[in-house]
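Hey, can you fold this?
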Amino acid sequence: MQLLTIQRILGILLSLFSITMLPAMAVSFYYQDGSIRAFIDAFILLLVTGLVFWFPARHHRKELKIRDGFIVVVMFWIALGIAGALPFFLTEVPKMSFTDAVFESMSGLTTTGATVLTGLDTLPKAVLFYRQFLQWIGGMGIVVLAVAILPLLGVGGMQLYRAEMPGPMKDSKLTPRITETAKALWYIYLSLTIICATAYYFAGMSGFDAVAHSFSTVAIGGFSTHDASIGYYNSPTIEMITVVFMLLAGVNFALHFLGWRHRSIKHYWADAELRTYISILFIISLVASGYLYFTNTYSDPWSAIHHGIFQTVSIGTTTGYTTTDYSVWPGFLPVLLLMVSFVGGCAGSTAGGIKVIRVMLLFKQGYREVLRLIHPNAVFAIKVNNKALPPRVVGAVWGFFAMYVFCFSIMHLFLMATGLDIVTSFSAVTACLNNLGPGLGEVGSNFSSINAPAKWVLCVAMLLGRLEIFTLLVVLTPAFWRR
């Protein structure tokens, strides 16, 4: 294990992360909101800490092994959650405990969108901007960004990429070199952000809000600069723009890359995962809209349709924006929407959840077992896009699902042990493990009222969801540390 090389990388990445304080400092200076000192202190502290890590190991440039890549990703995300909490902890408004600061930071970086803050409309602009910017950075992954813009790292970038990127088939690359792959992903990510911000601005948002919400929309984060979230604007146009970009961000970015490279959209509908993704959201939107109308929750058909579509796409893609408090909707709707978040978006997207491709494979594998009972001697291949998948991929999906259920159950029971009721604990773990944000019960609007031990468990849940279970758990197994 290349400990000095790992130390060097962590030092560089922490120093790089300190730069994220500069835009917030500029916002604070422009609006004169009084929070600039917190960001200056955080910038200096992170830069110095990064240099202290980097300097003794600056000459070590050995190739990373796969185990080293896992350690770098896990250690950096843990360090990142704590480092990102510094401005929240140091600022005078809002005054936050260390637990709340880490929770807010981890929620932003993992694009969960769960918050402990209230009164967002009156908070300093720099703090609001920083929350949104954290989500934008975390959306595609700070490690992928570092590999893209820092080829001077001199390390095997694929080891980091495989540990960082979501989805069951991580070995596929868009371009021959991993650095070029990371750059391609970020060019697409940046382009979507710019287009989204422009659309928001012309739809009626202020320049500040347009940029801030484009960050969290493309990142599928869900943080907003207003307590009422997207409902603050009371604008169907803004809501539909949000729906479009949430849908786009939930699509595998490899498809966006192919569309850009070939100047064609034909391959989109040829992708089985995308068809399933759109079909699920379409069916749930119909159910939600119909139920809202026929239960007279909204007497106007258009209101029922646009609220039903918006909340389905928002929760289904694990964004977490709201136009209304969906937790008080009648009957089974709140639970139905929460269940959709378990599916999440496509692999290779910024969405959370189990991922559509995994759910597809679970159903295909289950159906294959039924066919085997009928035809014991037949051979049935599991195919995606007319290509048979190797047994290793299918086995990995079942392993992921088993660990997902196990982790979910343990954290759900732990939260109940801290005194939370069953609805709150279930929805809180669901919201954090799926990187969704809003839950039900006490966490329907924010997480400020729950106890500190529960918040730390939920921080672990966010990290597990962001790194897709295995990346974090693998470094906790004794076999990982054996020679």
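Oh, and this one too while you're at it.
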Amino acid sequence: MQPLVIQRIFGLLLMIFSFTQLPPVLVAVIYKDGALTPFLHAFAYSSIAGLLIWLPVHKHRKELRLRDGFIVVVLFWVVLGLSGSLPFLLAETPGMSFTDSVFESISGLTTTGATVLTGIDDLPHSILYYRQQLQWLGGMGIIVLAVAILPMLGVGGMQLYRAETPGPIKDNKLTPRITETAKALWYIYLSLTIVCALAYWLAGMSGFDAIAHSFSTVAIGGFSTHDASMGYFNSALIESIAVVFMLMAGINFALHFMSWRSLSIRPYISDPEVRAYFTVLSLTAVVMTLYLYFGEVMGDESLGNALHHGIFQAVSIGTTTGFTTAEYFNWPRFLPVMLLFVSFIGGCAGSTGGGIKVIRFLLMFKQGAREIRRLVHPSAQISIKLGGTAMPFRILDAVWGFFAAYIAFFIVMLLALMATGLDQVTAFSAVAACMNNLGPGLGDVGANYQGINDTAKWVLVFAMMLGRLEIFTLLVLLTPTFWRH
């Protein structure tokens, strides 16, 4: 381990991140909302702290090693999450505690979208903008992390693809190609955001709402500038635009890169994960629509009404975005529970979506089907293929190892929340929503997380981090083996 290398990168990250606390200053000036000072103070504290950490070791330049990479990745989310909480903590409105400030910041950066805030419509514009910006920056960090960094550390959903999957990066070691990859991903991410904002604006949103919601849509975050979320606009056109961009953001960004480079949609069509992704969401949308229509859940017998609510909620929850058009958590129990379980699958590997990832579920399904065939043909050598390529046993072992770790941590955190006094429905849905980076849950956390105790909030902060870092990245730091020389 190289502490000085880690310290240098840590300081740089903090200084760079501090500048992201300046755009809300401009918003505060434009809207004269009185929230200027907290962002200036937060910028000063973060930048000075970063400078003091970086300055003593700024000349210490060595190649980052594998073990250092794990620490840097975890520090990226922990430290920036703490730094990002400063404006919430310092602002008089909404007047948040330290626990609530960290919860909101981590929820934003991990694109979870779980909020402790109420009366969102009445908050200062600068605070509203800052929440959305946190998700957008977190989404970009997730893409670079998932496609460019984690595969090289041997972790993450993109590791399942390795050299067999077309994408902007195929190397397994840290090289200058990371810079090229990150730049290409940045252009794609920024372009999607701009187009999404323009579409929202043309559909009737104000300029502020269009930019704010484009941030959380492309990041699959789910924060909104209104308590009623997307239901505030009461527009089928706006909801349709959201569905399109949520679907795009839930797809592997490496495929966006390949499609853009080849000017063809063939990378999407030929990708088995994308096909499984659309199959799951389509089936969910059909079940939702039929249940809403025949059950008259919305109090409206119109098929069109059931269709647009069914499709929107299926895509929003299925991709782990978390936007809502209605209080879906108050629908008949079958629907919200089904949606919650669909969020366990989540988006594709290398996307801003959360969950276990489609690729892992696809491989587990194929492995289950193989075991059934082996019962009929015990001596047969049956390989599991993805896109025509046989998957190595190491990858299959990694998938089941991930799933086992996921379930184990889920159970431990569920019991921990229940031990703090939460009921079963609230505890189960809260852990699922935070670990899958979904946001809204059921029971007492359907509308927001304000009413639960501080201990539960810290457990859920850990759940958000665990889900976003795909468990092993964080788990490896907790093992004695990692710290041995």
